[in-house]
Design goal:
- The chain has one domain: TIM Barrel (Alpha-Beta Barrel).
- The protein is 30% helix and 20% strand.
- It is built from 8 helices and 16 strands.
- It has an 8-stranded parallel beta sheet with strand order 3-16-15-10-9-8-7-4. A 4-stranded antiparallel beta sheet has the order 5-6-14-11, with no helix packed on it.
- β9, α4 and β10 form a beta-alpha-beta unit.
- α5 runs parallel beside α6.
- The protein is globular, with a radius of gyration of 18 Å.
Length: 301
């Protein structure tokens, strides 16, 4: 039974990886999960300098998932190179570094710092606010998606994955823009913008007012958007959004994803990733499927 998949020349032992921001850089989950079994660990977002993130409270439970307005708190690229990469190199898994920034220059600075580091791919979080354009996220404007992708590709030594925002009118347009900019792969979806109000206090639950909605509630949207993106471009896709079990992951693969990231499920069940890997293998055995690649985009009209 073959569970290996290939994205932009990088071979993963199976299609299951962690979603950025939900797994740290692996150390927090090491006692629960054998990191060697994962297709890849996708790190928490890394910026050129440390980010403090948003004020608290910044996480809230909601129907079918959670809202977070953590604000990409991270220690910066210097500490990441010194501490997190050496930790992950102890394991036989691929390393995908999530990169964030407020300007194209900030993205490129991190990408250049990682050029000589032993990491396999870069995932570019374009849901960050573009401070030079009044705060609109890079990923909400097709011309900005193409421009930032093109510039990052000039500086990147590793294959580049553009992480698309679902907070757009047409995900296909954004996928095409990333492809036009030279992206090697796409990952989607990032969180949907949501809000929660405490009716007793008549106050916003999150200090930031809005936050990113993740969890099972967004899964059907993720399946739809992965399918649309797969129809729009020829790039390999890493699907994510509310994946709680093997069936959820298989839905995204059938819709066109080559690999699947597991995020919010890690908070509820620390062994979610390996449980899903086991579930996919059980499904393949039951369905007499010898190669996981035969399932990619295999949904029937």
């Amino acid at each position: 039974m073959n569970t290996k998949v290939n994205i932009a020349g990088v071979t993963f032992r199976n299609p299951i990886m962690t979603a950025s921001g939900t797994f740290g850089s692996g150390a927090e989950y090491g006692e629960f999960v054998d990191l060697n079994r994962l297709g890849a660990v996708v790190t928490k977002g890394v910026a050129s300098v440390p980010w403090e993130g948003n004020p608290t409270p910044r996480v809230a439970e909601v129907y079918g998932g959670m809202l977070n307005a953590v604000g990409l708190q991270n220690p910066g690229i210097d500490l990441f190179i010194e501490r997190d990469i050496p930790f992950l190199k102890h394991y036989d898994t691929k390393i995908i570094v999530n990169v964030c920034g407020h300007t194209v220059e900030e993205y490129c600075e991190v990408v250049e710092r990682l050029a000589d580091q032993p990491v396999d791919m870069l995932e570019i979080n374009i849901s960050c606010p573009n401070v030079k354009e009044g705060g609109i996220a890079f990923g909400q404007d097709a011309s900005a998606v193409e421009a930032v992708t093109k510039e990052i590709k000039k500086h990147a030594a590793q294959p580049v994955i553009m992480k698309l925002s679902p907070n757009v009118t047409d995900i296909g347009d954004m996928a095409k823009a990333a492809e036009a900019g030279g992206a090697d792969a796409l990952s989607l979806i990032n969180t949907l913008t949501g809000m929660k109000i405490d009716v007793k206090r008549r106050k916003f639950v999150l200090a930031n007012k809005t936050g990113g909605l993740s969890g099972p509630a967004i899964h059907p949207i993720a399946v739809r958007m992965v399918y649309q993106a797969a129809q729009a471009v020829k790039l390999p896709i890493i699907g994510m959004g509310g994946v709680m079990n093997a069936e959820d992951a298989l839905e995204l693969i059938l819709a066109g994803a080559t690999a699947v990231s597991v995020g919010t499920a890690n908070f509820k069940n620390p062994t979610a990733t390996t449980d899903i890997i086991n579930g996919i293998m059980e499904y393949m055995a039951a369905q007499s499927i010898n190669d996981i690649r035969n399932l990619i985009g295999a949904v029937e009209e």
